[in-house]
Amino acid sequence: MNAADTAWVLVCAALVLFMVPGLAMFYGGMVPARNVLTMMLQNTIPLGIITLTWVLAGYTLAFSNNGNSLVGEFDAAALIDVDTPQFHTVAAGVTIPALAFVAYQMMFAIITPALLTGATAGRLKFAGWTVFLAAWSLIVYPQVARWLWHPKGWLVQLGAQDWAGGMVVHASAGAAAIAVLLVVGRRRGWPTPKTSPNNLPLMLAGAGILWFGWFGFNAGDGLQANAVAAQAMINTHVAGGAAMLTWLLVERLRSGHSTLVGAASGAIAGLATITPCAGFVGTGAALLIGLIAGCACCFAVGIKHMLHYDDALDVIAVHFVGGILGSLLLGFFADSSVNALSEDGVFTGGGGLLLWHQIVALLCVVLFSFVLSWVIAMIIDRTMGLREPGPEQEDLDRDQQGAAGYALSGTTARATSSARSSEDGLFTSRSTDGRLDPPEYLISAVVNTHRIDGLRDALLMAGARSLELADASVYTGTVHTEVFRGEARKLDFEDRLRVQAGVDSDHEEAVVAVLKRFGAEPGSIYRLAVTQY
């Protein structure tokens, strides 16, 4: 056994595993606040379900030494008797433990179906999704992996190439996403957007983790720590950076804005597109592939409006189009001087044979994944249900988990000096027990301030007997525009702070004066007489 190669493959397996929470954060940041936990759990649960299906049957179906060119046998079921496999077809002379290979390939099996949740965001029942995961990880994924990543695979024998999953991962997951979308349909109220992404910084953190993990995804696929791994790593990074820049440029030309969402989406598009090519092309080709990917995938976002399908987070435009594009571009840029196991492409003197093999392989993988995914989804939907009813889609976190992703508002979650000062005895001379001395009036106002500590303390010092602070969306009548994935959203609500203070007649004027000092518009200040029940 080669210790360096073994260590490298184990590290890369951990990097691919790390992509799963990264994907959860990436998707979770772009969905509405009331659906964030549901989205993140849909991406996390494959870690449990597919780990079991892979160990029990998935691995042996994909990489059994026995079996034929279409499907493996059960000689390695439950990993009871795992022989040294006929290793991944992109490597030669591999000397690593069989279980290192099992673990590395397991991580690919886990993250592949998780990709499609971005397309179906806001619509899936959790129980139905878990059953779909289990079925898909046994009926669809292992077969496609065998066809392209096992030396006996019929697409390998044909001459098709897929370094790290342009077809096995991205094209198959994208085809499955289309199939599931046909079953679960559109979100309630689509295409009119009712909500905005809940946390774009979370999205960026997830995108960063995905980029980081992609080095294990692509650079580890040769199963050796060698020059090809180094080439795959640099190709991965170069393509991601190039695609990010071209996506931002296209965004700028089309909408006048270059956005954070566009930067993250462009990077992911470039990483997905270089995936089938990473160990088969040179650095210059990787740069060109990234530039093409950023432009093509950005334009592909608009296809959903032309064809009227509701791909919530543009999985089809980024992963499906990226995987297909990269697999086809490999037919042009593949270079045997970079990797002796590769055929040459159109631009490197190999003619069009490899390109033809790539086209045939893509058609077979896409049709196979689409048809079987549609059958699986349809059976689940007709029996236990796969689509959440319309009203429940507005608050999936409460409906499915009985919890909220953001239990406290931005106001009440912050520690304030008033809370500390009460411990110090600053307000102990004045009773705050409404049963002993109830307020006479309730003063309500909307303020535009981020000085929450100062406002709260000033109101209490001015004589407020009770105090409530809450985030509010206030209709202003002034329309402003937000841009999400190149789509302009017209909004006429703005974020404000709602303040309600209970006061007696002696302190009413002082409390109102404080509210005005902190930016409350006079027209937003109201006084209501308090009626005790």
UniProtKB/TrEMBL annotation:
Q: Where are the transmembrane segments?
A: 6-28, 40-62, 90-114, 126-144, 164-185, 197-217, 229-250, 257-274, 280-303, 315-334, 354-380
**All copies of domain Ammonium transporter AmtB-like, residue ranges:** 7-406
Outline the segment boundaries, as ranges, of region: Disordered: 409-433
| InterPro entries per UniProt | Ammonium/urea_transptr (IPR029020), Ammonium_transpt (IPR001905), Ammonium_transpt_CS (IPR018047), NH4_transpt_AmtB-like_dom (IPR024041)
Membrane topology, as annotated: Multi-pass membrane protein
Q: Which PANTHER family does the record associate with it?
A: AMMONIUM TRANSPORTER MEP2
Which family is it part of? Belongs to the ammonia transporter channel (TC 1.A.11.2) family.
Record protein name field: Ammonium transporter
Organism name:
Arthrobacter jiangjiafuii
Q: Which gene encodes it?
A: amt
